[in-house]
Write a structure and sequence with these properties.
Elements: E1 5-10, H1 15-25, E2 36-41, H2 47-59, E3 65-71, H3 74-77, E4 83-86, H4 98-119, E5 125-128, H5 133-142, E6 152-154, H6 157-171, E7 178-179, E8 182-184, E9 192-194, E10 199-202, E11 205-208, H7 209-213, H8 216-219, H9 222-228, H10 230-238, H11 244-259, E12 267-272, E13 285-293, E14 296-299, H12 307-333
Parallel strand pairs: 1-2, 1-4, 2-3, 4-5, 5-6
Antiparallel strand pairs: 7-10, 8-9, 10-11, 12-13, 13-14
Helix pairs in contact: 1-11, 4-5, 4-12, 5-12, 6-9
Length: 334
């Protein structure tokens, strides 16, 4: 008998979760033979909506889904978890400064980190999606000191997937023919989408993306800005933020933690910096290229960093340092 995995999704009445939950429950993330108990957490005013989500999950008649728990109580939601997917956060509202956003989210992720510390398994894997994702993840990690730092990661896979897709569209190939793009740094407009180590399969051979595209100015200009600003472009067009693509990216991120990455390939993930990789300051939740095996990630080391990349990597690190310092100031006051 395969033991049932207990998986939490927060912000479970929201748009991203609505696209996410079906993918998890039908086996796209943990496999077609893995039974799941889904725990859905949201704020009290959303419990009516969440009841409708529970009914829909029941009506899907999914054989892997052994239990669905809907709650507004952290002591219920975080108990005995194997995976915590923290989607819910305070969104940025019109007129709100980034400092105000950080302050609101520090309170949320301090509380959720403390709940992880108190109720979850010490082996729990924690994935933070809610923005500002990197700093929210760091806040949760700091608030759960007995859970290994390596168990925390934040989502930059959506940016990674956007970068793959832009290259694939440019070259008129399938997106899975593009490998080893990198998102460095913060999930914000300072992130650095880097194609300098990426390859694309053309006529059965892996070709460096810069050689295949043959347009360095595009790869160092429009490609980067398109990926950096893609979230804003979706909002401008849809009048709503990315949900379907975000849910797909979460599935990709969690599936890779669970099953690993193919040999010789790496993906982008926000993880804690130890100060020894690519001159990124210690203690930042920074997006690196990682390879995953046996449910543990390792930063891919030894990639050559040119001056162009160095400048952009440092810029996003500086923003993350400022965010961290502001958040920790609020954390000490909270």
């Amino acid at each position: 008998m395969v033991s049932t995995l207990r998986v939490l999704v927060t912000g479970a009445a929201g748009q991203i979760a609505y696209s996410l939950l079906y993918g998890i429950a039908k086996g796209d993330v943990f496999g077609k033979d893995q039974p799941l108990a889904l725990v859905l957490l949201d704020i009290t005013p959303m419990m009516g909506v969440l009841g409708g989500v529970v009914m829909e999950l029941q009506d899907c008649a999914l054989p892997l889904l052994t239990e669905v728990v809907a709650t507004d109580k952290e002591e219920v939601a975080f108990k005995d978890l194997d995976f915590a997917i923290l989607v819910g956060s305070m969104p940025r509202r019109e007129g709100m400064e980034r400092k105000d956003l950080l302050k609101a989210n520090v309170k949320i992720f301090k509380s959720q980190g403390a709940a992880l510390e108190k109720y979850a398994k010490k082996t729990v894997k924690v994935i933070v999606v809610g923005n500002p994702a990197n700093t929210n993840c760091l806040t949760a990690m700091k608030s759960a000191p007995s859970i290994p730092k390596e168990n925390f990661s934040c989502l930059t896979r959506l940016d990674h997937n956007r970068a793959m897709a832009q290259i694939a569209i440019r070259l008129n190939v399938a997106s899975d023919h593009v490998k080893n793009v990198i998102i460095w740094g913060n999930h914000s407009s300072t992130q650095y989408p880097d194609a300098s180590h990426a390859v694309v399969k053309l006529q059965g051979k892996d070709v460096p993306v810069f050689d295949a595209v043959k347009d360095d100015s595009w790869l160092k200009g429009e490609f980067i800005s398109t990926v950096q600003q893609r979230g804003a472009a979706v909002i401008a067009a849809r009048k709503l933020s990315s949900a379907m693509s975000a849910a797909k990216a979460i599935c990709d991120h969690v599936r890779d933690i669970w099953s690993g990455t193919p040999e010789g390939e790496y993906v982008s993930m926000g993880v804690i910096s130890d100060g020894n990789s690519y001159a990124v300051p210690c203690g930042l939740m920074y997006s690196f290229p990682v390879a995953i095996k046996d449910k543990s990630w390792k930063i891919v080391e030894g990639l050559q960093i040119n001056d162009f990349s160095r400048e952009k990597m440092d810029l996003t690190a500086k923003e993350l340092e400022e965010e961290r310092d502001t958040a920790f100031e609020f954390l000490s006051l909270a």
